[in-house]
Write a structure and sequence with these properties.
Blueprint lengths: L3 H12 L4 H8 L3 H8 L7 H11 L3 H11 L15 H21 L11 H31 L4 H14 L6
Helix pairs in contact: 1-5, 2-3, 6-7
């Protein structure tokens, strides 16, 4: 069975009118490796994901790859109920952020975790789920905005990292 990242790699390569051989020359990987990535026989290597982000500003392959490597499941929406137009993604992000904010308002985490009642723990778990929904929607929104408006995904994250460093939140 093909992996989602393998299917996405093939789709992106074909959208650009590239053969496996041309992609292998661009990425310094063998054509056989490209074939194995596309067929799901091998996990896509970070170098190939970086190539698509740098050369084509397409973070979707990276999202599929991270999902397969890490199991985080921040997958692009591709089911039959998904509306992936940028305005729909925008509205969905607003909805998810509102739901997360409301859940956070109702959640108390001031008690020692060892002394939290089961109903309180369930409330905390539900809040965590709302926050996860918001994070997923945020990443998909950012990916779509970067792709649609040709804003560099890589530059956005680099600038974000510099901002965190300048404020003393992370070390260099």
């Amino acid at each position: 069975m093909k992996s989602k990242s393998g299917r996405k790699l093939k789709e992106l390569r074909q959208e650009r009118g590239q053969s496996q051989e041309q992609l292998s020359l661009d990425t310094f990987l063998s054509r056989e490796s490209i074939s194995k990535f596309e067929n799901g026989e091998r996990k896509i290597q970070p170098e190939l994901t970086n190539h698509y982000i740098k050369q084509h500003n397409d973070p979707m392959l990276a999202l599929h790859t991270v999902s397969e490597y890490m199991g985080w499941h921040i997958d692009p929406l591709d089911g039959p109920a998904a509306d992936t137009h940028r305005t729909s993604i925008h509205m969905k992000l607003q909805e998810e952020m509102q739901e997360a904010a409301e859940a956070l308002d109702q959640c108390s985490i001031t008690m020692n975790p060892d002394y939290v009642a089961s109903y309180e723990r369930e409330n905390i778990k539900n809040t965590a789920m709302e926050v996860a929904d918001s994070i997923h929607a945020s990443i998909l929104y950012l990916a779509e905005i970067c792709k649609s408006y040709n804003i560099s995904w890589e530059d956005v994250w680099d600038e974000h990292q510099r901002k965190l460093q300048s404020r003393g939140y992370v070390k260099s």
